[in-house]
Amino acid sequence: MKKYAIVAALFTLLLSACSTDFDIAADYEETLVVYGLLDASQDTQYIRVSRGFISADRSALEVALEPDSIYYLADQLAVTIERESDGAVFTFTEDRSIAKDTGVFGVAPHLVYALPQKLEANDAFRLRIENTVTGKIVTSYTSMVDSFRLTQPSDVQAFEFTTSLVSKFPNGLPQNIEVTFTAPVDGKVYDVAVRFYYRQWEGAVVGPGDTMFVEYLFEKGLVSTSLAGANPNPGGQPVIARYFGQDLLSYIASELSANPNITREPLQLPLEYVYYAGGQDLYDMIRTSQGGSGITALEAKPIYSNIEGGYGVFSSRFSKTRPNVGINTPSKDSLACGQLTRALNFNVDVPISCN
Asked: Which pTM value belongs to this model?
């Protein structure tokens, strides 16, 4: 959506800079912009629908801040999906309860369309959105990404992400940490993150403290090399994600502030891995947005869309987690005493003397 706003702003700027003989406000054509990812691992599905806009006398970035300019009126859209296997139709309802992050578009009210329904992973769905006032209809289709098997790490493994004892690694270099899983049916592109959970006290260390976490997204847009030509993907191929432990420590240091009045300690099993598998259309959108980049690419990038009659993407994903993964003693030493995080006041459950 942010990219669409930038495109609109640039388009307005180009029109104002050129000498033309036509009225840019004439011959209005309604444009629906749709973003939806069905997720069989979740109990509720969400679709965002907004409208494209252009103003003859105001910048696109200014108009984007006004909810009335980017959202449709209440009850104006009928948003449904039809299940391919039996023709069952499910209706989305308006939801203004979800907070939106800051950005180009207006924050409140943030309108999405919600369906409190768990969907089948081995099915497909056809999207239909109708503007009940103008009769405009857009459609799309997606098959559902299925569940998948997690292989590494196990839930009994203690990982090492230390900055110390580098000499023990081959060639004096630290080894990366591998996170592996099997590709799901109809999965094509993957994000993998690790969450580090800790407790925090401000002032006296009394009671259980506040449980918090930092999430480090270390793989984004990952595609298994064995899936390069697979469409559709039958599933079962191995996917490997990697990161360096030092990078996690560095990220923790960047996200937390050093404060002598704050004491922290990692949970006994502090790591949780989060896996996101996306479908073919989501992969195509990412590939299109990344294509043609570089100083020699003078042509404009195409805007990917699989929405018939509109713009945007309608696809699916599946997410899984591997919670309660431990860390070993050298990692605790680095967390408490290492140069990256020693100022964050981490207490650990092993005898350590920071020199």
From this structure: 0.76
Domains of the chain, with CATH numbers?
2-144 (2.60.40), 150-278+319-344 (no CATH)
Strand stretches in 11-147, DSSP E? 32-39, 45-51, 77-83, 89-91, 93-95, 112-115, 124-131, 137-143
Residue 18 CA neighbour count, 13 Å, CB half: 11
Spatial contact of 196 and 270, defined as CB atoms under 8 Å apart: yes
Structure tokens at 118: 């768990």
* Residue 10 CA to its chain's centroid (Å): 26
Distance CA 195, CA 272 (A): 5
User: Residue 265 and residue 256: Cα distance in Å, rounded?
Assistant: 13
Angle at 217 between CA 175 and CA 261, to 5 degrees: 90
Question: What are the helix and strand counts (H, E) for the chain?
Answer: 6, 16
Residue whose tokens read 């000499």: 167
In tens digits, the chain (355 residues) has pLDDT values of 333 333 333 223 222 333 334 344 444 467 889 999 999 999 999 999 988 754 444 444 443 444 555 788 888 999 999 999 999 999 999 998 876 554 433 344 578 999 999 999 889 999 999 999 999 999 999 999 999 999 888 655 555 665 443 434 444 455 678 888 998 988 899 999 999 999 999 999 989 999 999 999 999 988 865 544 444 566 678 888 988 888 899 999 999 999 999 999 999 999 999 999 999 898 888 888 765 444 444 444 557 899 999 999 999 999 999 998 888 888 888 889 888 899 999 999 877 778 6
